[in-house]
Specification:
This protein is an alpha+beta fold. The chain has ten helices and ten strands. A hairpin with a 2-residue loop joins strand 2 and strand 3. Helix 6 runs antiparallel to helix 7, helix 7 packs antiparallel against helix 8 and helix 8 runs antiparallel to helix 10. It is globular and about 80 Å long. The structure holds coenzyme a persulfide. Coenzyme a persulfide (COS) binds next to helix 6 and helix 10. Belongs to the acyl-CoA dehydrogenase family.
């Protein structure tokens, strides 16, 4: 049986154009043609390397970087990113992860890197030859980015790095890391800078590999007198926090899209199950309680997709800031998807919790999305603060 494909009704919404509809057809062809098939997910490192290679060979990673450096469009197109993540998440959470990290891991380079750094890193990442990572969180600085302690001390033409980062996706397999470290120009957010660090730099080590409920490469990484050229600084000293936030503004809607991909898969599986499941002399789908649940699930998905499409369109077409919109989309889509998947599992009954069931996989996949790239609580804070900025009082 060919892999299940997502419905594409929402591509008729005014947020999308012919290019997006063509990309959706290309993606569906890639998945149906076995582009993600026959990969053993038990070895997540090998699986991710293979997925990155395949996505690169298929030209799909070009959507993670700007055109001048091997990308698909002049600027990173948020709607394309969302479409890709939604489709990949629908089919395979690890494929979505492998794709997403190529963008997040290099987003700050695309935004603020020197010409030389962009030329060195972005084309290789777009071809799937290099794997990238985004190193922001620390053991004592997760949501509170300003509390970071990992230090970068200037010494002549170099910076010397000391400290740790944790929850680093692709930690252990990445070739290149975007690192945020304290350079101390000022206390708090104004004393952080962004750097590019290559995995083979002396003094850089993997301190610990971390396992999670939806396995993917993840690590705590360590810098001990790790010396990098000052040319690997992104933007100006002290700009790191803003670079991190601007990067997250681009990628948070794509997290929303991935969550919606998982939720769409849960809904489609639940509908198929409800239509086939015999119950009380009819089918589960004939029960008003099931119809009501499915109706709520579909509405929760559309609400999330509308907020996500609005954010990506505002960024791509209107070229306006999307801090508030991205936070709304990420919060709503990840929370709604968790609820939708839980409802799908409930409709499956006992089979829903069986090991190996699609609902089990989706249940595990969705959970981290409510936390990473800014937990739901952080998104509420961001929305509230943006609201205050525009309010008179
Ligand atoms: N774009 C550009 N600049 C931004 C920005 C954005 N989206 N958000 C904040 N800034 C600027 C602010 O304007 C402020 O600038 P000035 O110093 O010039 O006034 C500065 O950055 C500091 O902002 P703020 O005061 O809001 O910082 P806080 O320390 O209060 O933190 C939160 C804000 C909590 C929102 C932030 O730390 C955050 O998003 N945390 C979650 C991080 C995250 O996603 N972690 C997961 C890692 S990736 S898996």
């Amino acid at each position: 049986m060919p892999p299940r494909a997502p419905t594409r009704d929402h591509l008729d919404w005014p947020f999308f154009d012919e290019g997006h509809r063509a990309l959706a057809a290309e993606l569906d062809g890639f998945v149906a043609g076995g582009g993600l098939g026959s990969i053993d997910h038990h070895d997540v490192d090998a699986a991710c390397r293979e997925l990155v290679a395949r996505l690169g060979a298929a030209g799909l990673l070009r959507h993670c970087v700007p055109k001048a450096f091997g990308g698909a469009s002049e600027e990173i197109d948020s709607r394309a990113l969302c479409l890709l993540r939604e489709t990949l998440a629908y089919a395979d959470g690890l494929a979505d992860f492998a794709f997403a990290m190529q963008g997040l891991g290099t987003g700050a380079i695309s935004l603020s890197g020197s010409q030389a750094l962009k030329e060195e890193v972005l084309p290789k990442v777009a071809r799937g030859e290099w794997i990238s990572a985004f190193a922001l969180s620390e053991p004592d600085a997760g949501s509170d980015v300003a509390a970071m302690a990992c230090a970068a001390r200037r010494e002549g033409d170099d910076f010397v790095l000391n400290g740790e980062k944790t929850w680093i996706s692709n930690g252990g397999i990445a070739d290149v890391y975007t690192l945020f470290a304290r350079t101390g120009e000022a206390p708090g957010t104004r004393g952080i800078s962004a750097f590019v660090v290559f995995a083979d730099t002396p003094g850089f080590t993997i301190a610990e590999r971390i396992e999670t409920i939806a396995p993917h490469p993840l690590a705590r990484i360590r810098f001990e007198n790790c010396r990098i050229p000052a040319a690997q600084l992104l933007g100006n000293p002290g700009e790191g926090f803003k670079i991190a936030m601007r990067t997250l503004d681009i990628f948070r809607p794509s997290v929303a899209a991935a969550a919606t991909g998982f939720a769409r898969r849960a809904l489609d599986e639940a509908v198929a199950h409800a239509k086939g499941r015999k119950m009380f002399g009819a089918t589960l789908a004939d029960l008003p309680t099931a119809q009501s649940t499915l109706g709520e699930m579909a509405t929760a998905i559309d609400a999330a997709a509308l907020l996500t499409g609005r954010t990506a369109w505002r960024r791509d077409v209107q070229k306006l800031p999307t801090t508030r919109e991205a936070a709304m989309a990420k919060m709503t889509a990840t929370e709604n998807a968790q609820w939708v998947i839980d409802q799908a599992l409930q409709l499956f009954g006992g089979r829903g919790v069986q090991s190996g069931a699609i609902t089990e996989r989706l249940y595990c996949e969705i959970r981290a999305l409510r936390i990473y790239e800014g937990a739901t609580e952080v998104q509420k804070l961001v929305i509230g603060r943006e609201l205050m900025k525009g309010a008179t009082g």
